[in-house]
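Lay summary. Proteins are chains of building blocks that fold into shapes, and those shapes determine what they do. In this project we predict the shape from the chain. Here is one chain we studied, written as its sequence of building blocks.
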Amino acid sequence: MRISRVPVPLGYLRWLALGIALFLLAIGITITANAFGLTGFAAASSDPGTKVTATVSAGAPCTADGGANERVTFTIDGREREARFNGCGHAEGEQVDITVPADPPPNLVVYAAQAATGDGTAGEGLGSVLLVAASTAGAAYTYLLRRPPRTPQP
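And here is the predicted shape, written in a compact code that computers can read:
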């Protein structure tokens, strides 16, 4: 067979077809794994909570140990609430925007509204690419294990 006037042995075309087939198989495995939720990428919460403005009632300095929690007060559903704020470096009386979950527990810890904990999908694309690569490598290795070893003829 000739491609662009260059003779290409038929064996090379078979390897090319096998490589393409293994790659398409890996893509199919990845799509199936994503469809059944087997890749570990959880969907973002549909109700992240309510964004409210809170007042810092007890500030905490930012130290190297990173264990500082501040106290904030806020009003939600007509009730004044107090919660721990996972942050530091705010002055007493300073206004901060926080996200309060839909059904807040009694010992509530709130986060800044700008913080998107658990909502990021930055690694999803890379995870899918790595799953395709691993599937392709596994399929190719399985194919190589099936073949008998090539020994030179005397």
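What the prediction tells us: The longest helix spans residues 10-35.
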